Request: fold
Amino acid sequence: DAGITQSPRYKITETGRQVTLMCHQTWSHSYMFWYRQDLGHGLRLIYYSAAADITDKGEVPDGYVVSRSKTENFPLTLESATRSQTSVYFCASTKRAGGTNEQFFGPGTRLTVL
Amino acid sequence: GQNIDQPTEMTATEGAIVQINCTYQTSGFNGLFWYQQHAGEAPTFLSYNVLDGLEEKGRFSSFLSRSKGYSYLLLKELQMKDSASYLCAVRDGENSGAGSYQLTFGKGTKLSVIP
Reply:
Protein backbone atom coordinates (compact mmCIF):
# COMPACT_ATOMS: atom_id res chain seq x y z
CA ASP A 1 0.00 0.00 0.00
CA ALA A 2 2.07 2.93 -1.31
CA GLY A 3 -0.39 5.65 -0.22
CA ILE A 4 0.79 9.06 -1.34
CA THR A 5 4.24 9.60 -2.77
CA GLN A 6 6.20 12.62 -3.98
CA SER A 7 9.19 12.93 -6.26
CA PRO A 8 11.84 14.07 -6.19
CA ARG A 9 12.41 14.20 -2.44
CA TYR A 10 15.17 16.79 -2.84
CA LYS A 11 15.80 19.20 -5.68
CA ILE A 12 18.29 21.97 -6.26
CA THR A 13 17.69 24.26 -9.20
CA GLU A 14 18.64 27.69 -10.45
CA THR A 15 16.64 30.88 -10.73
CA GLY A 16 14.61 30.98 -13.93
CA ARG A 17 14.44 27.24 -14.53
CA GLN A 18 11.22 25.30 -14.80
CA VAL A 19 10.70 22.63 -12.15
CA THR A 20 7.96 20.04 -11.81
CA LEU A 21 7.18 18.31 -8.53
CA MET A 22 5.26 15.07 -8.79
CA CYS A 23 2.55 13.72 -6.52
CA HIS A 24 0.91 10.31 -6.83
CA GLN A 25 -1.72 8.66 -4.64
CA THR A 26 -3.04 5.10 -4.77
CA TRP A 27 -6.27 5.60 -2.80
CA SER A 28 -8.34 7.11 -5.63
CA HIS A 29 -9.03 10.10 -3.41
CA SER A 30 -10.99 12.79 -5.21
CA TYR A 31 -9.40 15.80 -3.54
CA MET A 32 -5.75 16.71 -3.72
CA PHE A 33 -3.82 19.68 -2.38
CA TRP A 34 -0.41 21.32 -2.66
CA TYR A 35 1.11 23.19 0.29
CA ARG A 36 4.37 24.91 0.95
CA GLN A 37 5.88 25.06 4.42
CA ASP A 38 8.22 27.84 5.46
CA LEU A 39 9.60 28.86 8.83
CA GLY A 40 7.39 31.51 10.35
CA HIS A 41 4.48 30.81 8.00
CA GLY A 42 3.38 27.27 8.61
CA LEU A 43 1.62 25.34 5.87
CA ARG A 44 0.08 27.46 3.14
CA LEU A 45 -2.19 26.17 0.38
CA ILE A 46 -0.98 26.72 -3.18
CA TYR A 47 -3.53 24.88 -5.33
CA TYR A 48 -6.16 22.21 -4.89
CA SER A 49 -8.21 19.90 -7.06
CA ALA A 50 -11.63 18.27 -6.74
CA ALA A 51 -11.17 15.74 -9.54
CA ALA A 52 -9.40 15.23 -12.84
CA ASP A 53 -9.38 18.47 -14.83
CA ILE A 54 -10.79 20.50 -11.92
CA THR A 55 -8.30 22.74 -10.13
CA ASP A 56 -8.45 25.97 -8.16
CA LYS A 57 -6.15 28.49 -6.53
CA GLY A 58 -5.31 28.50 -2.87
CA GLU A 59 -3.71 31.19 -0.72
CA VAL A 60 -0.36 31.51 -2.55
CA PRO A 61 -0.74 30.42 -6.21
CA ASP A 62 1.47 33.01 -7.96
CA GLY A 63 4.35 31.45 -9.88
CA TYR A 64 2.86 27.96 -9.82
CA VAL A 65 0.85 25.90 -12.29
CA VAL A 66 -0.97 22.61 -11.70
CA SER A 67 -2.68 20.01 -13.82
CA ARG A 68 -4.66 16.90 -13.09
CA SER A 69 -5.23 14.71 -16.11
CA LYS A 70 -5.60 11.56 -13.98
CA THR A 71 -7.17 11.18 -10.55
CA GLU A 72 -4.03 9.72 -9.03
CA ASN A 73 -1.54 12.37 -10.18
CA PHE A 74 -1.31 16.04 -9.29
CA PRO A 75 1.94 17.63 -10.54
CA LEU A 76 3.02 21.13 -9.46
CA THR A 77 5.14 23.20 -11.85
CA LEU A 78 7.21 26.24 -11.06
CA GLU A 79 7.34 27.92 -14.45
CA SER A 80 10.35 30.14 -13.69
CA ALA A 81 11.76 29.37 -10.27
CA THR A 82 12.67 32.21 -7.90
CA ARG A 83 14.65 32.14 -4.66
CA SER A 84 11.48 32.91 -2.72
CA GLN A 85 10.13 29.53 -3.85
CA THR A 86 12.79 27.73 -1.83
CA SER A 87 10.62 25.72 0.53
CA VAL A 88 9.36 22.30 1.52
CA TYR A 89 6.40 21.27 -0.62
CA PHE A 90 3.76 18.82 0.59
CA CYS A 91 1.08 17.14 -1.42
CA ALA A 92 -2.04 15.87 0.38
CA SER A 93 -5.23 14.05 -0.48
CA THR A 94 -8.59 13.27 1.07
CA LYS A 95 -11.64 11.29 0.03
CA ARG A 96 -14.84 12.96 -1.07
CA ALA A 97 -17.21 12.17 1.79
CA GLY A 98 -17.69 10.06 4.88
CA GLY A 99 -15.73 10.11 8.10
CA THR A 100 -13.52 12.94 9.21
CA ASN A 101 -12.05 13.55 5.76
CA GLU A 102 -8.63 14.18 7.21
CA GLN A 103 -5.92 15.02 4.74
CA PHE A 104 -3.12 12.52 4.22
CA PHE A 105 0.24 14.05 3.43
CA GLY A 106 3.04 12.88 1.20
CA PRO A 107 6.64 12.84 2.48
CA GLY A 108 7.45 16.24 1.00
CA THR A 109 9.91 17.67 -1.53
CA ARG A 110 12.64 19.96 -0.27
CA LEU A 111 13.33 22.48 -3.05
CA THR A 112 16.26 24.86 -3.09
CA VAL A 113 16.42 27.61 -5.71
CA LEU A 114 19.87 29.14 -6.10
CA GLY B 1 -10.13 36.24 6.68
CA GLN B 2 -8.65 33.34 8.54
CA ASN B 3 -6.53 33.66 11.67
CA ILE B 4 -5.26 30.77 13.74
CA ASP B 5 -3.02 31.31 16.76
CA GLN B 6 -1.02 28.83 18.77
CA PRO B 7 2.10 29.19 20.91
CA THR B 8 5.37 28.96 19.01
CA GLU B 9 7.23 26.72 21.45
CA MET B 10 6.62 24.73 24.61
CA THR B 11 8.80 22.56 26.81
CA ALA B 12 7.58 19.81 29.12
CA THR B 13 9.03 16.98 31.16
CA GLU B 14 8.82 13.31 30.31
CA GLY B 15 5.86 11.71 32.08
CA ALA B 16 4.05 15.02 32.57
CA ILE B 17 0.90 16.45 30.95
CA VAL B 18 0.98 19.33 28.47
CA GLN B 19 -1.83 21.37 26.94
CA ILE B 20 -1.36 23.12 23.60
CA ASN B 21 -3.90 25.84 22.92
CA CYS B 22 -5.28 27.03 19.61
CA THR B 23 -7.57 29.99 19.00
CA TYR B 24 -9.16 30.69 15.66
CA GLN B 25 -11.13 33.35 13.85
CA THR B 26 -12.43 32.04 10.53
CA SER B 27 -15.21 33.00 8.14
CA GLY B 28 -16.80 29.58 8.53
CA PHE B 29 -16.29 26.45 10.59
CA ASN B 30 -16.61 22.83 9.63
CA GLY B 31 -14.13 21.09 11.87
CA LEU B 32 -10.81 21.50 13.63
CA PHE B 33 -7.88 19.16 13.14
CA TRP B 34 -4.68 18.53 15.05
CA TYR B 35 -1.65 17.15 13.25
CA GLN B 36 1.72 16.01 14.56
CA GLN B 37 4.85 16.71 12.56
CA HIS B 38 8.27 15.37 13.49
CA ALA B 39 11.25 17.30 12.18
CA GLY B 40 11.88 16.56 8.52
CA GLU B 41 8.71 14.51 8.14
CA ALA B 42 5.16 14.96 6.88
CA PRO B 43 2.27 15.99 9.14
CA THR B 44 0.21 13.07 10.42
CA PHE B 45 -3.39 13.27 11.58
CA LEU B 46 -4.03 13.16 15.34
CA SER B 47 -7.57 14.29 16.04
CA TYR B 48 -10.70 15.95 14.73
CA ASN B 49 -13.40 17.97 16.51
CA VAL B 50 -16.53 19.37 14.92
CA LEU B 51 -18.83 19.51 17.95
CA ASP B 52 -18.10 21.09 21.33
CA GLY B 53 -16.46 18.85 23.86
CA LEU B 54 -13.62 16.48 24.42
CA GLU B 55 -12.43 13.72 22.10
CA GLU B 56 -10.10 11.19 23.68
CA LYS B 57 -7.74 8.93 21.83
CA GLY B 58 -5.28 7.10 24.04
CA ARG B 59 -2.78 9.52 25.55
CA PHE B 60 -4.06 12.34 23.37
CA SER B 61 -7.27 14.34 23.84
CA SER B 62 -8.61 17.32 21.96
CA PHE B 63 -11.20 19.83 23.13
CA LEU B 64 -13.31 22.29 21.18
CA SER B 65 -15.43 25.29 22.11
CA ARG B 66 -16.99 26.74 18.97
CA SER B 67 -18.51 29.74 20.75
CA LYS B 68 -15.07 30.76 22.02
CA GLY B 69 -13.14 29.84 18.86
CA TYR B 70 -10.87 27.73 21.04
CA SER B 71 -9.35 24.29 21.04
CA TYR B 72 -6.64 22.50 22.93
CA LEU B 73 -4.63 19.34 22.50
CA LEU B 74 -3.81 17.51 25.73
CA LEU B 75 -0.93 15.08 25.79
CA LYS B 76 -0.62 12.83 28.83
CA GLU B 77 2.26 10.69 30.08
CA LEU B 78 4.66 12.49 27.80
CA GLN B 79 7.31 10.46 26.07
CA MET B 80 10.49 11.61 24.37
CA LYS B 81 9.02 10.61 21.02
CA ASP B 82 6.28 13.24 21.51
CA SER B 83 8.87 15.91 20.76
CA ALA B 84 7.46 17.35 17.54
CA SER B 85 5.49 20.26 16.13
CA TYR B 86 1.74 20.21 16.64
CA LEU B 87 -0.37 21.90 13.99
CA CYS B 88 -3.88 23.22 14.51
CA ALA B 89 -5.98 23.48 11.34
CA VAL B 90 -9.51 24.66 10.65
CA ARG B 91 -11.77 23.60 7.82
CA ASP B 92 -14.14 26.42 7.06
CA GLY B 93 -16.41 24.46 4.74
CA GLU B 94 -17.81 27.57 3.09
CA ASN B 95 -16.52 26.96 -0.43
CA SER B 96 -17.90 24.33 -2.76
CA GLY B 97 -16.33 21.08 -3.97
CA ALA B 98 -12.73 20.58 -2.95
CA GLY B 99 -12.71 24.09 -1.55
CA SER B 100 -14.96 22.97 1.27
CA TYR B 101 -12.20 20.62 2.35
CA GLN B 102 -9.54 23.33 2.46
CA LEU B 103 -7.62 23.56 5.69
CA THR B 104 -6.10 26.71 7.13
CA PHE B 105 -3.17 25.90 9.39
CA GLY B 106 -1.71 27.69 12.35
CA LYS B 107 2.05 28.13 12.39
CA GLY B 108 2.51 25.16 14.70
CA THR B 109 3.74 24.65 18.25
CA LYS B 110 7.14 23.06 18.67
CA LEU B 111 7.04 20.82 21.73
CA SER B 112 10.27 19.71 23.35
CA VAL B 113 10.06 16.89 25.88
CA ILE B 114 12.98 16.82 28.30
CA PRO B 115 14.04 14.00 30.64
User: Anything to note?
Assistant: The first strand of chain B starts at residue 3 and ends at 5. Residues 22 and 99 of chain B are 23 Å apart (CA to CA).
